[in-house]
Write a structure and sequence with these properties.
alpha+beta, globular
């Protein structure tokens, strides 16, 4: 249990540069959110048969009642194999209703023993991958929010 909590904290620490950038530029952003259906963004193998789970999302909403949102989510779960499984996702689209998907990405699901060098490398690699991809995701959000030109 202690290792699980330490790993979830560590992933949040590794993502802090991304969160700081979002915090500085998007006043409406939500951090550590657990929106309805966030688990559905992850690989089916990641979400099934978990004994402990932590799914967190950072949400940058566009304007309106059912806005286009940029969602950056991470998961750390334990399963019967005793390893910590982790994955990251990005989703661009509307979160309410059907048909709001614009773009998405999933990292490969990964697992490692608690406290191992492999786990630290996996969490660091995942955070780095997401931080590097953020400018592209932000460009896609801006394109989705731009008014259609005739």
């Amino acid at each position: 249990m202690r290792c699980f909590r330490a790993s979830t904290r560590r992933l949040q620490e590794l993502l802090e540069p991304l969160h700081a950038d979002i915090r500085d530029n998007f006043s409406a952003a939500q951090f550590n959110a657990r929106p309805e259906g966030v688990k559905g963004y992850f690989d089916y193998g990641m979400i099934r048969d978990t004994s402990q789970e932590d799914f967190r999302a950072t949400v940058i909403p566009g304007p309106g009642w059912n806005p286009i949102c940029l969602v950056i989510a991470v998961a750390i779960v334990t399963k019967g194999d005793g390893q910590l499984h982790h994955q990251g996702v990005y989703y661009l689209g509307m979160m309410k209703g059907i048909g709001g998907h614009i773009d998405s990405w999933e990292s490969a699901p990964a697992a490692a023993d608690c406290g191992s060098v492999e786990l630290e490398a996996g969490l660091s690699g995942l955070a780095g991958q997401m931080i590097r991809a953020f400018p592209e995701w932000l460009t896609k959000l801006n394109e989705a929010l731009a008014p259609a030109s005739d």
